[in-house]
Design goal:
The structure holds two protein chains of two kinds. Chain A has nine helices and no strands. Chain A is mostly helical. Classes of the chains: A mainly alpha, B mainly alpha.
């Protein structure tokens, strides 16, 4: 069978589908001071997944927490990668209490594209990954 | 009551793949 670390090189999704892969990628991103991008990506997925079994109040609290931590500060690594229109859309949702399971989808896609084009290829060439393999 | 950070951490963990 293909060893997991070879699968990680196939696509970002193969990497993010494996616990050890996530751990190593996060170590790399931490070194590059952009681990928040990965945490944000998972927070968006988690947010979307929770809607079925969580009450509205918890969803609102969570949406506010994600907004505050990653989007509100314009100098944050995540906030800098998200388009202004996407940020105002999320801000609007939070302010008007329009909590929707898909409200972070566009922002997540923008961060994912950034990782696919930038940090993920760098990771595959990094010492951290090469030493691991 | 969960603090915001706990809530966020719980949300992030819920999206991670389970150990194979």
């Amino acid at each position: 069978p293909t060893p997991p670390y070879l699968k990680w090189a196939e696509s970002l999704h193969s990497l993010l589908d494996d616990q050890d892969g996530i751990h190593l990628f996060r170590t790399f991103l931490k070194q590059e001071e952009c681990a928040d991008m990965l945490d944000f990506w998972f927070a968006c997925s988690g947010f979307r997944k929770q809607e079925a079994n969580e009450g509205n109040e918890k969803m609102l609290k969570l949406a506010k927490a994600i907004y505050k931590k990653y989007i509100l500060d314009n100098n944050g690594i995540v906030s800098r990668q998200i388009k202004p229109a996407t940020k105002s859309f999320i801000k609007d949702c939070v302010m008007k209490l329009h909590i929707d399971p898909a409200m972070f989808d566009q922002a997540q896609t923008e961060i994912q594209t950034m990782m696919e084009e930038n940090t993920y290829p760098l990771f595959l060439k990094s010492d951290i990954y090469l030493e691991y393999t | 009551i969960d603090s915001e950070d706990d809530l966020l951490q719980e949300c992030i963990s819920s999206a991670m793949p389970k150990k194979k």
